[in-house]
Structure formats: structure tokens, C-alpha cells
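Milestone 3.1: sequence recovery, worked example.
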């Protein structure tokens, strides 16, 4: 049974919230009373999210582009007053390619999506939290950030870098009532992943509901003693 959280009067920014996990998370935050904002880059994804969760506030924003963040964050603060919680879902996967065949563009894409994005959005949201009452930040790394099985060097390096980034920022913010953590999922059970891997054992995959519940916990006051952690969320994979 789901734990009930009360995020009333909290402003939550979810980056890249239009996917399967994002839609689940948006609904849970809205149901718990939060003012919930989701960034998007794809208009069709935004329409689907709005249809499923009509109370969500949508903002078009590519968080790999610093100039877009510089314009957007002041608009959000002016409209909503602050940002109490940041959940960064932006990321991407590239695998099946040996390092010697990996292109420079492939490498840069993984670093931009999985690491640069986390740096840029954190850089401009953290001062908002520091000027308020603190906050909670959750990034999405991967079990691969701890151990790679090969053929995913760019992805693995970017997710490992994200773990170290979380550790560093959490240490810097110890006295500011801001907790920074990340989770380490394996394969999430989504329709897209089922289509991509139709012969897999879906029962071993991670439920998006379960993963969303972990994120909600890390954004709640119940997790105030957890800071700088990389939380394993492996399912039975």
C-alpha cells in the first residue's frame, strides 16, 4: 500500500516529466497537494501529460541549454514564489556499442543528457532553495553508474559522474537545509521498454510506481537524514 505524503504548499519542479515514470510521479505529487511543474521538449508528450494530469503546470525547457534555464527559472519563481523540490528525470541511454566504435557525438550526447543537464538545472535551482527554506533534489542515475557490463562506456561514465556530482553538491549544501540524492534503477517496466525488449522477463523489471514512491520519500521530511546517497532501486533484476 502506498504511503500518503502531504506536499501541500510545496512547489515541485520535475524536469522531463512527460515519460512513463514522469507521468506517474506528476500524478503522485499532485494527489499529495503539491504545485507540480513539469518541463518538456516534445509537444506531443506535453499534451499526453496534460490530458492525464490536467493540474500539472507545463514549461517548455531544454535543461542542456544554459540560456533557456536562465530565462525560465526567474519566470517560475515570479509565478510560484519558490522551488522547494527538484526531481531531475532528464536522461538517455546508449548501449550495444564498443568504445572503439563510439562516435564523439554519441559520447557528448550522453554527457549532455545525463550529466550536464543535472549540473545546469542544479546550478540555477539551488540558489532559489538557499534563499528560501531549503529543499530536496533527486537525480536519476543507474546501477550501471556503479558497475558496467561493457558496451555502454559513455552511458556508464555519465551515470557514474552523476553519482559523484550528487556527493559533491550534497557536501557543499550541508548547512543549507538542502538534501541532494540520487537513485540507481535498473530497467523500468514501461510500454516502450517492453516493445524494445519483447522477450525479456518483465516481472524482474522495476515498477514505475515503486520507483516513484522512493522518489516521493526522498522528497519528504521523512528522509531528512539522507543526504548525498545513491539509493539502489534494482527490483529483482
Amino acid at each position: 500500500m502506498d504511503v500518503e505524503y502531504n506536499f501541500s504548499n510545496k512547489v515541485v519542479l520535475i524536469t522531463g516529466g512527460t515519460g512513463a515514470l514522469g507521468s506517474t510521479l506528476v500524478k503522485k505529487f499532485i494527489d499529495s497537494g503539491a504545485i507540480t511543474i513539469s518541463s518538456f521538449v516534445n509537444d506531443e508528450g506535453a499534451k499526453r501529460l496534460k490530458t492525464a494530469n490536467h493540474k500539472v503546470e507545463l514549461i517548455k525547457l531544454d535543461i542542456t541549454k544554459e540560456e533557456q534555464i536562465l530565462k525560465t527559472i526567474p519566470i517560475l519563481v515570479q509565478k510560484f514564489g519558490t522551488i522547494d523540490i527538484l526531481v531531475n528525470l532528464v536522461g538517455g541511454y546508449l548501449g550495444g556499442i564498443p568504445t572503439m566504435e563510439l562516435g564523439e557525438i554519441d559520447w557528448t550526447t550522453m554527457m549532455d543528457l545525463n550529466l550536464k543537464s543535472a549540473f545546469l538545472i542544479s546550478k540555477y535551482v539551488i540558489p532559489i532553495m538557499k534563499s528560501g527554506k531549503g529543499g530536496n533534489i533527486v537525480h536519476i542515475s543507474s546501477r550501471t553508474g556503479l558497475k558496467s557490463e561493457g558496451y555502454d562506456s559513455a552511458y556508464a561514465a555519465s551515470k557514474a559522474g552523476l553519482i559523484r556530482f550528487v556527493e559533491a553538491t550534497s557536501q557543499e549544501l550541508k548547512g543549507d537545509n538542502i538534501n541532494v540524492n540520487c537513485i540507481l534503477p535498473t530497467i523500468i517496466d514501461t510500454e516502450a521498454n517492453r516493445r524494445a525488449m519483447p522477450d525479456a522477463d518483465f516481472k524482474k523489471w522495476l515498477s514505475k510506481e515503486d520507483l516513484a514512491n522512493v522518489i516521493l520519500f526522498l522528497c519528504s521530511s521523512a528522509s531528512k537524514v539522507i543526504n548525498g546517497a545513491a539509493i539502489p532501486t534494482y527490483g529483482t533484476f
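The longest strand covers residues 178-185. The chain has one domain: 11-232.
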